[in-house]
Amino acid sequence: MLAKRIIPCLDIKDGRTVKGVNFENLRDAGDPVELARIYANEGADELVFLDISATDEKRKTLVALVERIAAEINIPFTVGGGITTVDDVYALLQSGADKVSINSAAVRNPLLISEIADKFGSQCLVLAIDAKQTPTGWKVFLNGGKIETPLDLYEWAKEGASRGAGEILFTSMNHDGTKNGFANEALRQLSETVNIPIIASGGAGTMPHFLDTFTIGKADAALAASIFHFGEISIGELKTYLLQHEISIRL
Amino acid sequence: MNLVIIDYGAGNTQSVKFAFQRLGLNPVLSSAKEIIGAADKIIFPGVGHAKAAMEVLKETELHTFIPQLKQPVLGICLGMQLMCRYSEEGNTDCLGIIDEEVKHFEPLLKVPHIGWNQTTDKDGRQTSHYYFVHSYYVPVNNYTTLTCNYIQDFSAAIQKDNFYGVQFHPEKSSRAGEEYLQRFLDL
Lengths: 251, 187
What we know:
The complex is a heterodimer. By secondary structure, chain A is α/β, with parallel strands linked by helices.
Protein backbone atom coordinates (compact mmCIF):
# COMPACT_ATOMS: atom_id res chain seq x y z
CA MET A 1 0.00 0.00 0.00
CA LEU A 2 1.20 3.48 -0.85
CA ALA A 3 2.71 5.04 2.27
CA LYS A 4 1.84 8.47 3.65
CA ARG A 5 4.89 10.69 3.43
CA ILE A 6 6.62 12.73 6.15
CA ILE A 7 8.51 15.71 4.71
CA PRO A 8 10.80 18.03 6.67
CA CYS A 9 11.18 21.48 5.11
CA LEU A 10 14.45 23.42 5.27
CA ASP A 11 14.59 27.16 4.64
CA ILE A 12 17.72 28.13 2.74
CA LYS A 13 19.28 31.55 2.49
CA ASP A 14 22.52 32.16 0.60
CA GLY A 15 23.18 28.41 0.61
CA ARG A 16 22.74 27.94 4.36
CA THR A 17 19.79 26.80 6.47
CA VAL A 18 18.05 29.52 8.38
CA LYS A 19 15.66 29.42 11.32
CA GLY A 20 17.40 27.74 14.17
CA VAL A 21 18.09 24.09 14.28
CA ASN A 22 18.88 22.24 17.44
CA PHE A 23 20.59 18.91 17.06
CA GLU A 24 23.26 17.59 19.35
CA ASN A 25 24.77 15.41 16.65
CA LEU A 26 25.09 18.21 14.12
CA ARG A 27 28.55 19.65 13.60
CA ASP A 28 27.38 22.58 11.52
CA ALA A 29 23.78 23.61 12.03
CA GLY A 30 23.87 25.83 8.96
CA ASP A 31 24.82 23.21 6.39
CA PRO A 32 21.69 22.01 4.56
CA VAL A 33 23.39 18.83 3.35
CA GLU A 34 24.32 17.76 6.85
CA LEU A 35 20.81 18.38 8.15
CA ALA A 36 19.32 16.63 5.12
CA ARG A 37 21.47 13.59 5.79
CA ILE A 38 20.24 13.38 9.38
CA TYR A 39 16.62 13.55 8.26
CA ALA A 40 17.15 10.97 5.53
CA ASN A 41 18.73 8.61 8.08
CA GLU A 42 15.85 9.16 10.50
CA GLY A 43 13.39 8.05 7.84
CA ALA A 44 12.19 11.24 6.14
CA ASP A 45 10.39 10.25 2.94
CA GLU A 46 11.30 13.38 1.00
CA LEU A 47 12.81 16.77 1.69
CA VAL A 48 11.79 20.26 0.65
CA PHE A 49 14.35 23.06 0.37
CA LEU A 50 12.85 26.51 0.21
CA ASP A 51 15.23 29.22 -0.96
CA ILE A 52 14.50 32.59 0.58
CA SER A 53 17.58 34.41 -0.76
CA ALA A 54 16.64 37.91 -1.77
CA THR A 55 18.96 38.50 -4.72
CA ASP A 56 19.56 36.63 -7.94
CA GLU A 57 23.27 36.67 -7.25
CA LYS A 58 22.85 34.78 -4.01
CA ARG A 59 20.25 32.51 -5.58
CA LYS A 60 22.92 31.18 -7.92
CA THR A 61 24.53 29.48 -4.94
CA LEU A 62 21.35 27.40 -4.82
CA VAL A 63 22.25 25.45 -7.96
CA ALA A 64 25.61 24.48 -6.46
CA LEU A 65 23.86 23.46 -3.26
CA VAL A 66 21.31 21.36 -5.15
CA GLU A 67 24.14 19.46 -6.79
CA ARG A 68 25.72 18.72 -3.40
CA ILE A 69 22.38 17.52 -2.02
CA ALA A 70 21.76 15.29 -5.04
CA ALA A 71 25.25 13.80 -4.74
CA GLU A 72 24.86 12.90 -1.09
CA ILE A 73 21.18 12.30 -0.32
CA ASN A 74 19.41 9.10 -1.41
CA ILE A 75 15.79 10.23 -1.09
CA PRO A 76 13.78 12.57 -3.35
CA PHE A 77 13.83 16.30 -2.79
CA THR A 78 11.97 19.36 -3.99
CA VAL A 79 13.44 22.82 -4.42
CA GLY A 80 11.30 25.94 -4.26
CA GLY A 81 11.52 29.68 -3.82
CA GLY A 82 11.85 32.36 -6.46
CA ILE A 83 11.40 30.11 -9.50
CA THR A 84 9.91 32.21 -12.29
CA THR A 85 11.01 30.68 -15.58
CA VAL A 86 11.38 27.38 -17.39
CA ASP A 87 15.13 28.03 -17.44
CA ASP A 88 15.20 28.23 -13.63
CA VAL A 89 13.50 24.83 -13.53
CA TYR A 90 15.88 23.35 -16.07
CA ALA A 91 18.93 24.46 -14.06
CA LEU A 92 17.58 22.93 -10.85
CA LEU A 93 16.52 19.63 -12.42
CA GLN A 94 19.83 19.35 -14.29
CA SER A 95 21.63 19.77 -10.97
CA GLY A 96 19.74 16.81 -9.55
CA ALA A 97 16.56 18.18 -7.94
CA ASP A 98 13.68 15.72 -8.33
CA LYS A 99 10.94 18.33 -8.24
CA VAL A 100 10.51 22.07 -8.13
CA SER A 101 7.78 23.98 -6.40
CA ILE A 102 6.35 27.18 -7.79
CA ASN A 103 4.07 29.58 -6.00
CA SER A 104 3.65 33.31 -6.71
CA ALA A 105 5.08 33.07 -10.23
CA ALA A 106 2.37 30.57 -11.15
CA VAL A 107 -0.38 32.91 -9.95
CA ARG A 108 1.12 35.81 -11.93
CA ASN A 109 1.61 33.60 -14.99
CA PRO A 110 -0.48 30.40 -14.95
CA LEU A 111 1.03 29.43 -18.32
CA LEU A 112 4.24 28.69 -16.44
CA ILE A 113 2.56 25.60 -14.95
CA SER A 114 1.73 24.19 -18.38
CA GLU A 115 5.13 25.08 -19.79
CA ILE A 116 6.99 23.28 -17.01
CA ALA A 117 4.66 20.26 -17.09
CA ASP A 118 4.91 19.93 -20.87
CA LYS A 119 8.65 20.26 -20.90
CA PHE A 120 9.66 18.23 -17.84
CA GLY A 121 6.54 16.28 -16.88
CA SER A 122 3.94 16.71 -14.15
CA GLN A 123 5.90 14.44 -11.81
CA CYS A 124 8.48 17.17 -11.17
CA LEU A 125 6.08 20.04 -10.53
CA VAL A 126 4.65 20.91 -7.13
CA LEU A 127 2.22 23.81 -7.07
CA ALA A 128 2.62 25.53 -3.69
CA ILE A 129 -0.41 27.48 -2.54
CA ASP A 130 -0.50 29.76 0.51
CA ALA A 131 -4.09 30.47 1.46
CA LYS A 132 -6.00 32.11 4.27
CA GLN A 133 -9.57 31.69 5.39
CA THR A 134 -11.35 35.03 4.95
CA PRO A 135 -14.99 36.03 5.39
CA THR A 136 -15.45 35.31 1.67
CA GLY A 137 -13.79 31.89 1.74
CA TRP A 138 -10.25 30.52 1.34
CA LYS A 139 -8.19 33.04 -0.64
CA VAL A 140 -4.79 32.58 -2.23
CA PHE A 141 -2.00 34.89 -0.98
CA LEU A 142 1.31 35.79 -2.59
CA ASN A 143 4.81 36.70 -1.48
CA GLY A 144 4.74 34.64 1.67
CA GLY A 145 1.30 35.87 2.61
CA LYS A 146 1.78 39.59 2.10
CA ILE A 147 -0.48 40.08 -0.92
CA GLU A 148 -4.08 38.91 -1.07
CA THR A 149 -5.44 37.79 -4.43
CA PRO A 150 -9.07 37.33 -5.47
CA LEU A 151 -8.29 33.69 -6.29
CA ASP A 152 -10.26 31.01 -4.51
CA LEU A 153 -8.11 28.18 -3.12
CA TYR A 154 -10.16 25.37 -4.66
CA GLU A 155 -10.59 27.03 -8.05
CA TRP A 156 -6.88 27.76 -8.23
CA ALA A 157 -5.99 24.21 -7.22
CA LYS A 158 -8.30 22.90 -9.92
CA GLU A 159 -6.73 25.14 -12.54
CA GLY A 160 -3.23 24.15 -11.42
CA ALA A 161 -4.04 20.46 -11.67
CA SER A 162 -5.65 20.84 -15.08
CA ARG A 163 -2.59 22.75 -16.30
CA GLY A 164 -0.37 19.86 -15.27
CA ALA A 165 0.82 20.32 -11.67
CA GLY A 166 1.71 16.91 -10.24
CA GLU A 167 1.09 17.72 -6.58
CA ILE A 168 -0.26 20.53 -4.45
CA LEU A 169 1.56 21.80 -1.38
CA PHE A 170 -1.10 23.66 0.57
CA THR A 171 -0.05 25.92 3.45
CA SER A 172 -2.81 27.32 5.59
CA MET A 173 -1.70 30.71 6.83
CA ASN A 174 -4.32 30.51 9.57
CA HIS A 175 -2.58 27.44 10.93
CA ASP A 176 1.09 28.04 10.05
CA GLY A 177 3.18 28.59 13.18
CA THR A 178 0.31 27.90 15.59
CA LYS A 179 1.22 24.27 16.35
CA ASN A 180 -2.51 23.66 16.72
CA GLY A 181 -2.84 21.16 13.89
CA PHE A 182 -3.28 21.23 10.12
CA ALA A 183 -6.22 22.77 8.19
CA ASN A 184 -7.93 19.41 7.85
CA GLU A 185 -11.33 20.54 6.60
CA ALA A 186 -9.80 22.55 3.76
CA LEU A 187 -7.35 19.74 3.02
CA ARG A 188 -10.13 17.19 2.79
CA GLN A 189 -12.07 19.42 0.45
CA LEU A 190 -8.95 19.94 -1.68
CA SER A 191 -8.50 16.18 -1.93
CA GLU A 192 -12.08 15.87 -3.12
CA THR A 193 -11.62 18.71 -5.62
CA VAL A 194 -8.46 17.62 -7.43
CA ASN A 195 -7.15 14.17 -8.29
CA ILE A 196 -3.46 14.79 -7.57
CA PRO A 197 -1.62 14.24 -4.28
CA ILE A 198 -1.93 16.91 -1.57
CA ILE A 199 0.88 17.82 0.82
CA ALA A 200 -0.39 19.35 4.07
CA SER A 201 1.63 22.21 5.50
CA GLY A 202 1.23 24.58 8.43
CA GLY A 203 0.23 23.84 12.00
CA ALA A 204 2.09 20.68 12.99
CA GLY A 205 2.67 20.63 16.73
CA THR A 206 2.08 17.09 17.96
CA MET A 207 2.05 13.55 16.61
CA PRO A 208 -1.78 13.33 16.70
CA HIS A 209 -1.84 16.33 14.35
CA PHE A 210 -0.17 14.18 11.69
CA LEU A 211 -2.58 11.33 12.34
CA ASP A 212 -5.52 13.72 11.94
CA THR A 213 -4.26 15.24 8.72
CA PHE A 214 -3.92 11.78 7.16
CA THR A 215 -7.30 10.48 8.42
CA ILE A 216 -9.56 13.56 8.63
CA GLY A 217 -7.66 15.75 6.17
CA LYS A 218 -7.05 12.92 3.65
CA ALA A 219 -3.58 14.36 3.00
CA ASP A 220 -1.09 12.23 1.08
CA ALA A 221 1.93 13.79 2.76
CA ALA A 222 2.60 16.14 5.65
CA LEU A 223 5.29 18.78 5.77
CA ALA A 224 6.74 20.45 8.86
CA ALA A 225 9.79 22.46 9.80
CA SER A 226 10.37 23.71 13.32
CA ILE A 227 9.08 20.70 15.25
CA PHE A 228 11.66 18.60 13.43
CA HIS A 229 14.45 21.17 13.54
CA PHE A 230 14.10 21.62 17.29
CA GLY A 231 13.77 17.92 17.94
CA GLU A 232 10.31 18.31 19.46
CA ILE A 233 9.24 15.30 17.42
CA SER A 234 11.69 12.87 15.86
CA ILE A 235 10.75 11.43 12.50
CA GLY A 236 11.39 7.91 13.71
CA GLU A 237 9.09 8.20 16.72
CA LEU A 238 6.43 9.94 14.61
CA LYS A 239 6.44 7.14 12.07
CA THR A 240 6.22 4.47 14.75
CA TYR A 241 3.27 6.30 16.28
CA LEU A 242 1.48 6.56 12.92
CA LEU A 243 2.09 2.90 12.20
CA GLN A 244 0.59 1.99 15.59
CA HIS A 245 -2.47 3.95 14.49
CA GLU A 246 -2.72 1.91 11.30
CA ILE A 247 -1.48 4.55 8.91
CA SER A 248 0.48 3.13 5.97
CA ILE A 249 4.04 4.27 6.62
CA ARG A 250 7.50 3.34 5.37
CA LEU A 251 9.79 2.40 8.25
CA MET B 1 33.54 -2.39 -13.65
CA ASN B 2 32.80 -0.46 -16.80
CA LEU B 3 29.33 0.93 -16.11
CA VAL B 4 27.70 3.15 -18.73
CA ILE B 5 24.57 5.26 -18.30
CA ILE B 6 22.85 5.84 -21.63
CA ASP B 7 22.73 9.61 -22.07
CA TYR B 8 19.74 10.64 -24.15
CA GLY B 9 18.51 13.67 -22.22
CA ALA B 10 16.46 11.81 -19.62
CA GLY B 11 15.62 13.80 -16.53
CA ASN B 12 17.17 11.61 -13.85
CA THR B 13 20.55 10.88 -15.40
CA GLN B 14 22.43 12.97 -12.84
CA SER B 15 20.67 11.32 -9.89
CA VAL B 16 21.42 7.87 -11.27
CA LYS B 17 25.08 8.79 -11.71
CA PHE B 18 25.27 10.09 -8.14
CA ALA B 19 23.63 6.92 -6.80
CA PHE B 20 26.32 4.72 -8.37
CA GLN B 21 29.03 7.07 -7.17
CA ARG B 22 27.71 6.56 -3.63
CA LEU B 23 28.23 2.84 -4.25
CA GLY B 24 31.86 3.54 -5.14
CA LEU B 25 31.61 3.33 -8.93
CA ASN B 26 32.40 5.91 -11.53
CA PRO B 27 29.80 5.47 -14.27
CA VAL B 28 30.29 6.99 -17.70
CA LEU B 29 27.48 8.96 -19.36
CA SER B 30 27.38 8.34 -23.06
CA SER B 31 25.19 8.24 -26.14
CA ALA B 32 27.96 6.74 -28.29
CA LYS B 33 27.29 3.19 -29.46
CA GLU B 34 30.93 2.10 -29.26
CA ILE B 35 31.12 3.21 -25.61
CA ILE B 36 27.76 1.72 -24.64
CA GLY B 37 28.57 -1.49 -26.54
CA ALA B 38 31.86 -1.92 -24.68
CA ALA B 39 30.30 -1.59 -21.22
CA ASP B 40 30.09 -4.43 -18.71
CA LYS B 41 26.72 -3.20 -17.53
CA ILE B 42 24.38 -0.55 -18.83
CA ILE B 43 21.83 1.72 -17.18
CA PHE B 44 18.93 3.03 -19.23
CA PRO B 45 17.48 5.87 -17.13
CA GLY B 46 14.33 7.79 -17.81
CA VAL B 47 12.13 10.54 -16.53
CA GLY B 48 10.00 12.42 -19.00
CA HIS B 49 7.65 11.75 -21.88
CA ALA B 50 7.70 8.44 -23.78
CA LYS B 51 7.13 9.92 -27.23
CA ALA B 52 9.75 12.65 -26.76
CA ALA B 53 12.23 10.09 -25.43
CA MET B 54 11.64 7.75 -28.39
CA GLU B 55 12.23 10.63 -30.80
CA VAL B 56 15.65 11.26 -29.26
CA LEU B 57 16.47 7.54 -29.37
CA LYS B 58 15.48 7.37 -33.03
CA GLU B 59 17.57 10.40 -33.98
CA THR B 60 20.61 8.73 -32.49
CA GLU B 61 19.57 5.28 -33.79
CA LEU B 62 19.81 3.93 -30.28
CA HIS B 63 16.28 2.55 -30.72
CA THR B 64 17.62 -0.34 -32.82
CA PHE B 65 20.93 -0.59 -30.97
CA ILE B 66 19.64 -1.02 -27.40
CA PRO B 67 17.52 -4.16 -28.11
CA GLN B 68 20.62 -5.90 -29.49
CA LEU B 69 22.72 -5.39 -26.38
CA LYS B 70 23.95 -8.59 -24.73
CA GLN B 71 25.17 -7.17 -21.42
CA PRO B 72 22.87 -6.72 -18.42
CA VAL B 73 20.81 -3.57 -19.02
CA LEU B 74 18.77 -1.94 -16.24
CA GLY B 75 15.93 0.31 -17.35
CA ILE B 76 14.68 2.71 -14.69
CA CYS B 77 11.13 4.14 -14.70
CA LEU B 78 10.56 5.44 -18.24
CA GLY B 79 13.60 3.38 -19.27
CA MET B 80 11.71 0.24 -18.25
CA GLN B 81 8.53 1.39 -20.00
CA LEU B 82 10.44 2.07 -23.21
CA MET B 83 11.55 -1.58 -23.24
CA CYS B 84 7.94 -2.45 -24.09
CA ARG B 85 6.38 -2.58 -27.54
CA TYR B 86 4.14 0.48 -27.29
CA SER B 87 3.16 3.27 -24.89
CA GLU B 88 -0.11 5.12 -24.54
CA GLU B 89 1.98 8.15 -23.52
CA GLY B 90 2.02 9.98 -26.83
CA ASN B 91 0.83 6.77 -28.57
CA THR B 92 4.32 5.80 -29.53
CA ASP B 93 6.07 2.61 -30.59
CA CYS B 94 8.86 1.75 -28.16
CA LEU B 95 11.85 -0.62 -28.25
CA GLY B 96 9.79 -3.80 -28.42
CA ILE B 97 11.99 -5.93 -26.15
CA ILE B 98 8.91 -7.00 -24.23
CA ASP B 99 5.63 -7.43 -26.06
CA GLU B 100 3.48 -5.29 -23.76
CA GLU B 101 1.60 -2.01 -23.99
CA VAL B 102 2.32 0.68 -21.42
CA LYS B 103 -0.98 2.07 -20.13
CA HIS B 104 -2.19 5.13 -18.28
CA PHE B 105 -3.65 4.57 -14.81
CA GLU B 106 -7.41 4.82 -14.65
CA PRO B 107 -7.85 7.82 -12.32
CA LEU B 108 -9.75 5.84 -9.68
CA LEU B 109 -7.19 7.09 -7.18
CA LYS B 110 -4.89 10.09 -7.41
CA VAL B 111 -2.57 10.06 -10.41
CA PRO B 112 0.47 10.25 -10.56
CA HIS B 113 1.25 7.39 -8.19
CA ILE B 114 3.78 9.29 -6.08
CA GLY B 115 5.57 7.99 -3.04
CA TRP B 116 6.83 4.88 -1.30
CA ASN B 117 5.14 1.59 -1.97
CA GLN B 118 5.96 -2.04 -1.26
CA THR B 119 6.29 -4.68 -3.92
CA THR B 120 5.66 -8.42 -3.92
CA ASP B 121 8.06 -10.97 -5.36
CA LYS B 122 7.14 -14.14 -7.24
CA ASP B 123 6.94 -16.10 -4.00
CA GLY B 124 4.43 -13.67 -2.54
CA ARG B 125 6.92 -12.06 -0.17
CA GLN B 126 6.63 -8.33 0.46
CA THR B 127 9.76 -6.30 -0.17
CA SER B 128 10.97 -3.01 1.28
CA HIS B 129 9.33 0.23 0.20
CA TYR B 130 10.63 1.79 -2.99
CA TYR B 131 10.00 5.30 -4.32
CA PHE B 132 7.61 5.53 -7.29
CA VAL B 133 6.52 8.48 -9.38
CA HIS B 134 4.60 7.67 -12.56
CA SER B 135 1.25 7.95 -14.33
CA TYR B 136 1.81 5.11 -16.80
CA TYR B 137 2.46 1.47 -15.96
CA VAL B 138 3.54 -1.82 -17.47
CA PRO B 139 0.82 -4.45 -16.93
CA VAL B 140 1.72 -7.65 -15.09
CA ASN B 141 3.08 -10.10 -17.70
CA ASN B 142 5.23 -13.22 -18.10
CA TYR B 143 8.39 -11.20 -17.44
CA THR B 144 7.17 -9.51 -14.25
CA THR B 145 9.50 -10.22 -11.32
CA LEU B 146 8.01 -7.79 -8.77
CA THR B 147 4.44 -6.55 -8.65
CA CYS B 148 3.11 -3.46 -6.96
CA ASN B 149 -0.46 -2.46 -6.27
CA TYR B 150 -1.88 0.99 -6.87
CA ILE B 151 -5.33 1.21 -8.40
CA GLN B 152 -4.44 -2.28 -9.69
CA ASP B 153 -1.51 -4.70 -9.82
CA PHE B 154 1.25 -3.60 -12.19
CA SER B 155 4.86 -4.53 -12.92
CA ALA B 156 7.30 -2.99 -10.44
CA ALA B 157 10.17 -4.96 -12.00
CA ILE B 158 10.58 -7.02 -15.14
CA GLN B 159 13.28 -9.21 -16.58
CA LYS B 160 13.69 -10.77 -19.99
CA ASP B 161 17.08 -12.33 -20.74
CA ASN B 162 19.69 -9.62 -20.08
CA PHE B 163 17.10 -6.83 -19.88
CA TYR B 164 16.01 -5.73 -16.42
CA GLY B 165 13.58 -2.94 -15.65
CA VAL B 166 12.25 -1.24 -12.54
CA GLN B 167 9.31 1.12 -12.40
CA PHE B 168 10.51 2.61 -9.12
CA HIS B 169 13.55 4.81 -8.63
CA PRO B 170 16.26 2.79 -6.89
CA GLU B 171 18.49 5.88 -7.04
CA LYS B 172 15.99 7.65 -4.74
CA SER B 173 14.87 4.70 -2.63
CA SER B 174 17.22 5.11 0.32
CA ARG B 175 19.03 1.98 1.52
CA ALA B 176 16.54 -0.40 -0.11
CA GLY B 177 17.29 1.21 -3.47
CA GLU B 178 21.04 1.04 -2.93
CA GLU B 179 20.74 -2.66 -2.14
CA TYR B 180 18.76 -3.14 -5.34
CA LEU B 181 21.40 -1.39 -7.45
CA GLN B 182 24.13 -3.39 -5.72
CA ARG B 183 22.36 -6.64 -6.63
CA PHE B 184 22.31 -5.53 -10.27
CA LEU B 185 26.04 -4.76 -10.07
CA ASP B 186 26.67 -8.18 -8.51
CA LEU B 187 24.87 -10.09 -11.31
